[in-house]
Amino acid sequence: MTILDRIRLVRKKIGLKQGEFADRIGLTQTSMSMIENGKAPLTDKNIKLICATFAVDEDWLRTGKGEMFGAQSPYEKELLETFSKLTADTQEFILDMAKNLLKRQKK
């Protein structure tokens, strides 16, 4: 599996379309498509942005060794464990709240 295959795998694992994934790291959908298809270079900056934005382990992304996602902070781990125990309706409510908090944070 190549680094481009691993990037595609990350994107699919987190459930983002190519355009959404690209937007989160500051690229266009066209640029992301060209990178994934080997028609445009994958820069170190892109690799670092992917890792930082999606908590991907850089060594795994570059070499395939280790785990796809890096170590979580204790807060992330607790949040995910708690979130997984909630009903679907409550999860949807929490997700909407989190999105609203992100919008406020960006202001």
Shape: globular
Beta strand % = under 5%
The CATH topology of the largest domain is 434 Repressor (Amino-terminal Domain)
Number of helices: 7
Q: Structural class of the helix and strand makeup?
A: mainly alpha
Helical fraction equals 55-70%
Count of strand segments: 0
Relevant CATH superfamily of the largest domain = lambda repressor-like DNA-binding domains
Distance between the termini: 40 Å
Q: For the report, how would you describe the main beta sheet?
A: none
The radius of gyration over CA amounts to 16 Å
Mean pLDDT: 90
Per CATH, the class of the largest domain reads Mainly Alpha
Summarize the structure in words.
This protein has 107 residues and is mostly helical. The chain folds into 2 domains: 61 residues, lambda repressor-like DNA-binding domains (434 Repressor (Amino-terminal Domain), Orthogonal Bundle), CATH 1.10.260; 33 residues, no CATH class. The chain is built from 7 helices and no strands. It is globular.
Keywords:
about 110 residues, mainly alpha, 434 Repressor (Amino-terminal Domain)
Précis, in short:
This protein is mainly α. The protein has helices at residues 3-13, 18-24, 29-36, 44-54, 58-63, 74-84, 88-106.
Map the helices and strands:
Elements: H1 3-13, H2 18-24, H3 29-36, H4 44-54, H5 58-63, H6 74-84, H7 88-106
Helix pairs in contact: 2-3
